[in-house]
Design a protein that fits this description.
The protein is α+β, with helices and mostly antiparallel strands. The chain is built from 27 helices and 26 strands. The protein folds into five domains: 83 residues; 87 residues, Beta-Lactamase (2-Layer Sandwich), CATH 3.30.450; 107 residues, Beta-Lactamase; 154 residues, 2-Layer Sandwich (Alpha-Beta Plaits), CATH 3.30.70; 242 residues, Alpha-Beta Barrel (TIM Barrel), CATH 3.20.20. The termini are far apart.
Length: 763
Amino acid sequence: MFRLRKNLGEDSDWRISSLAGLLGFALTAAAMEIVSAYSVPLTTSSIILSAVIGSLLGMSLVAQRSALCVRHKLHEQNKWLDGAINNMIQGLCMFNAQNRLMVWNERYRAMYNIDPRSIWRGCTVQDLLGARIAAGTFPLNPERYEAQLRAALKQDKPFTHTVDLSDGRTVAVVNQPMQGGGWVATHEDITERRRAERELDRTRTFLDTIINNVPSNIIVKELPSLRYLLINKAGEKHFDLPRENMIGRTTAEIFSKGTADLIHQHDLEFLRSGREIISGEHAIITPTGNTRIVTTTRLPVMGEDGRPQYMIVVIDDLTERKRHEQRIVHMAHHDSLTELPNRAAFNECIGATLELAARAGESFAVLCVDLDRFKEVNDVFGYSVGDALLCEAARRLETACQGAFLARVGGDEFSIITPTGLQPATAVILAEQLVAAFDSDIDIEGHPLRVGLTIGVGIYPQDGADAATLIANTDAALSRAKSEARGSIRFFETSMDHQLREKRALQQDLRNAIMRDEIALHYQPQAHIAGDITGFEALVRWHHPRHGLVPPTTFIPLAEESGIIIALGEWVLRSACREAASWPRPLSIAINLSPVQFQHGDLPSLVHQILLETGLPPARLELEITEGVLIGDFTRAVAILRRLKNLGVRIAMDDFGTGYSSLSYLQSFPFDKIKIDRSFIASLNQSQQAATIIRAVIALGRGLDLPVVAEGVETEEQLKFLASESCDEIQGYLIGRPTPIADYADVVGRAPAPWPKDLAAAS
């Protein structure tokens, strides 16, 4: 607390009273001497003494009056001074030359939460620091602080420092030496200022980060000199030049003359307008010689005088976008592997050719070409060899086409459009040239590969007056050639169109077969070699309302081609699992899966959902796959199979021995069962090779600890042979034919359905 007023008042009163007392004493002493020296009579002495006493009293009154005036003035002065000091926003301390506290204000005491009893006039620096330590507001080392303070004051230099208090406040302290000794200390709470400064720094850093990381190129130029003032990272990358090599320089000092003149022209246009200017696509050459396609936007930043002081230039670099657009256009019309035109380009070309031929009244041909034995190459040597083979085949076809339009429209399928001219002679010559181009082997990575061509041909306009019809009929010719004679050339015939229409109609009927209850399941028993039935395989049947029973070999490929197999496969899974779950006996149920089901949707989730819905224990479900599942995308297929196996279901390899990579597949995935293809069982009596293969498969299963099932067992001789070779299980007409499950009611643990009374009576 400021303590100046009271002390000064007491000192003044004391001095005035003392002076009056001394003067009175002196006058009294003088009067007594006069009386004694001159033998003044008593009356006269009394008068003199009274006069002296009166004088003393008057002087005392005058002294008191004077003291009151002084005290009043000092009180007023101290009041103002006290108010000023105690209303400072800073804490204040004043020390004398002896390093003792003489003056402080309430702000200082409250700032550090000092106990009022721990601070007094005349206390030392050590006392004051001790009070702050007790209050927990002095986090520094007191000895080191005092030593630094004394050293600074000794050199007559200010001693400043910043203190971070434990409650989060920050205080700036300035110790300023005074003339004649002593010093003044001010303590200012700068917490908010520091926070604002930190926030400002964070904001500045944030804005710098934003500007530097904006993908657009941003530069700032100073006006009117047009010198570069700021360039962000994107701009630095855009110009292929470090920012320090550009800032402070003009365009003419950085770019080639042509580019500098163009940029300067745009800058001058902006200066003349004084408003936002957008420049359309134009090319610039960077200082390192790279050409960029850009658009620019120039924006003004006004100064205090309302005139543009800076120019912001936002550069949108379109170079990569233009390259991507060109690449996308190319990719949209070209095959990524062979770089030949693709199906989209083929469709555009055939449309244009049709229009030209129709106007000129001319004819042209479409050839659909399929590589023979390509699938075998893929299966045996892998996809890298298959891709290389396709590229070489594309090169040979392009050479043989001699200007005809060639496109790759599928995996190993190519389509060719001949120029307009004499047909079918032109098409025959071209087809023969194509076939001749593949007379020699193709060497891929040291493998001499021999592939041939199967070709279907359609002629405009007799085989189709529009693109869709012509393409469909040419495909029909190719399909006929592939089914009847691989390596042949077939022209479209009217009968092919009839077959094609029937196929499409059958495919359309198949889409509605499930809703119309035309699809049914038949069940064929599977048994141990001793004869006891262990389960059934669910086999789908289609009863067409007009065609009767359609063989699975006919409608399953149609379902796979059209994608109907997804819905059909789900129906089979759900129906078979629901049926098996209702059997009193816990027999297994085997269901075939199509490779298409592995390519679309989430098959493991579907199986899991159906198991939960039907309540069938996973261990009773056996899913049968062929090698076709693994050929398309091996990694994806194995991942799906592992997820299925994790559900607890069993996985069987069906038609084993008919493919090319069965052994490697058995090594890659832990199958639960191997099924020997029925073709080997059927040839058992006619072919020694078939018997040898069957023995080898059974031995393989025994070595891998895998049960082996022989399909197509129809005779006792076949059963006897399999039993002698210790085959585990069998399936075929000898055990039971595929029929509705009602025919096996006793096997699954149900009572046979009772006969109607009239039929019983008739029997």
